[in-house]
TrEMBL record:
GO terms for molecular function: acid-amino acid ligase activity; ATP binding. The lineage of its organism: Bacteria, Candidatus Adleribacteriota. It comes from the Bacteria. The keyword Lyase does not apply. It comes from Candidatus Adlerbacteria bacterium RIFCSPLOWO2_01_FULL_51_16. Residues 278-412 form the Mur ligase C-terminal domain. This is UDP-N-acetylmuramoyl-tripeptide--D-alanyl-D-alanine ligase. Keywords: ATP-binding, Ligase, Nucleotide-binding. The keyword Ligase applies. SUPFAM superfamilies: MurD-like peptide ligases, catalytic domain, MurD-like peptide ligases, peptide-binding domain. InterPro entries: Mur-like_cat_sf, Mur_ligase_C, Mur_ligase_C_dom_sf, Mur_ligase_cen, MurCDEF_CellWall_CoF430Synth. Signal peptide: none annotated. Residues 32-201 form the Mur ligase central domain.
Amino acid sequence: MFLRIAKQLVVSVLTLEARAVLRRYHPHIIAVTGSVGKTATKDAIYAVVARGAHVRKSEKSFNSEVGIPLTILGAPNAWSNPLRWVMNFVDGVLLIVFNSRYPEWLVLEVGADRPGDIKNIAAWLPVDIAVITRLPEMPVHVEFFDSPQAVTEEKAALITALKRGGVLVLFGDDEGVKALSSATRERVLTFGFGEGVDVRGEHATLLFEEGSPPAGGWPIGMSVQLHVGGVSAPVSIIGAVGAHALVPLLAAATVGEARGMDISTIVEGLKGYEPPPGRMRLIRGIKETLVIDDTYNSSPAAAGAALDTLALVAPGRAAQGGITPGRRIAVLGDMLELGRHSTAEHRKIGEHAAKTADMLITVGFRSREMVQGALDSGMPDANILQYEDATRAGAELENILREGDCVLVKGSQSMRMERVVEEIMLEPERAPELLVRQDEEWKRR
């Protein structure tokens, strides 16, 4: 009870201060929501908008009723430190009272764990450009909503925050998202890989490192041809793979188009984008292996896309490097907050893994349903291992890895699947730089 009251007090004070700061400094606001790719999209948009402007973005995934005001105030998360929270409050007052060099633009990530989260934020946040990424049929956090459609409706509430003369940016390859264009009278721009979008990507291809095998055969990123306003140019992303890893670049280019930026400036800005940790990041593993680190979080749509990428990388490596590829190993943790949909969705991912991976390793009791799905789809029992703990799974995986193996690691936040990556990465001393959840507060959990 006390902790709940204390949190509500913190939220109330932070929100009041954040609203006062917005009234004082009048920054332009770009707000990003969706069920897949919010953080990467926010980071890519920041890279583009920061060309020639003073910009601040949400740190990491500061997308909640606490994180958004903290970003507006430019304050850190104090976690469980009461003194640090008091200091944040004082800093907020000083920002309001005394004139400061405040950012011209804010790029904010807006999330929803429960009904009303985005509606409450939209009630006070004046948005110039609202961006909505993919909203799959089975989104993450659906456990606390009446239905997947209710999640979509909550995300769409961000549109109500759009100012007069604002721009709504939508992922046009998702028909449900595209349909949200009818929810506003303001300008609408779309992005994606399909026909009919305003900013389109095509010819997505893997990029490979030069050199002798096996290093020469591994992918190092992806490239795509970007089409904006009748002009095209190539852009690339280094350090991550998957078509869905390119979508944030398309969203950022669309925001650039909304701001009237030319394609050369947009492309130059995207050169400064680095995919965030835990989102399809490529990390060299021990024994000349490759790790696809997608450990930030998981949902059925994201897990399916990651498995498709695992299937893409291994054949690509064989063709480009001229060597026999190793095994495609999927290490998948529980997908949380699916509620009554959990059993069916875990089984579907198991079926998907049987088609895209040579070996399946699961972490968590919910993932036993993945195992059943994989078995039902023909994956041999000998190719499946089950664990309850991510650290143990990583330690045992270390012993069975062979040269040339490609390992996808994915799971919901609470499964702490980054511990698997830390066990098998070639340079574990770089974990604080490359992996998610490396600050001391997370390490203690």
